[in-house]
Amino acid sequence: MRSVGEILRQEREKLGQDLAGLAEDLKVKLEYLRALEEDDYQAIPGGIPIIVGILSAYSQKLGLDSVKTSAIFRRDYTGTPGSVLPEELQSPKKPWTPTHTISAIIITLTVLAGFFYYSRSFFLSGPPVLKLTSPKENELVVGKEVVVKGKLRRGDVVSVNGEKIILAEDGSFETVVECHFGENLILIEAANPKGEQEQLARRFVCQEE
Questions:
Q1: Which fold has domain 129-207?
Q2: Could you tell me which CATH number the domain at 4-124 has?
Q3: For the range 55-59, what are the long-range contacts, defined as Cβ-Cβ under 8 Å and sequence gap of 24 or more?
Q4: Coil/strand/helix, residue 207
Q5: Beta strand 145-153 with 157-160: parallel, antiparallel or unpaired?
Q6: How many Cβ atoms sit within 10 Å of the Cβ of residue 167?
Q7: pLDDT digits over 60-114, tens only?
Q8: What is the pTM of this model?
Q9: What SS3 state is found at 11?
Q10: Run of H or E including 164
Q11: Contact, 59 vs 8, CB < 8 A?
């Protein structure tokens, strides 16, 4: 049966991930991740709470079930002679102390902060992404008004034919624009706080009811 270290290392290699890059993303020391992959738990100070905290964050980063990997770790940690830990570390009855609690909280907060920073950087970096769902290109619209609907990612300003419109919390927007009978052209523009812009033009036809 594979150890935790083998599972982590094989999954990382399958994904083509660099150990140093993962350590930076998780805000965890590189030697701690290397120790996990080598089943060298003595190299990670703080005992079970710290090891489990790092293991859970690393497992989730690789797309593994952190509950299962933690269970395998505890099996090996408290296993019979021949487990991956030296005998003096295999006692399951070590008392939980306030130091353990504080250490676990610090690790958890560090991991969450790193994840939040990574997620924010990923979703907010780059130019705006603008998607228009209405009207469709060359759509035939009956009446003198057309509903303009769409969604914006990585941006905070949207305007239709030069008029700014309000964005919902999820980035969606909707407004009504007057049109004249025959072919019409609307221009949708988006921008983010960095000044990066995205433009989208849409043609449609309005006809009398």
A1: Immunoglobulin-like (2.60.40)
A2: 1.10.260
A3: 55/4, 57/26, 57/28, 57/111, 57/115, 58/8, 58/22, 58/26, 58/28, 58/33, 59/8
A4: strand
A5: unpaired
A6: 17
A7: 988 999 888 888 888 877 643 333 444 433 444 557 777 778 888 889 888 887 7
A8: 0.41
A9: helix
A10: strand 163-165
A11: yes
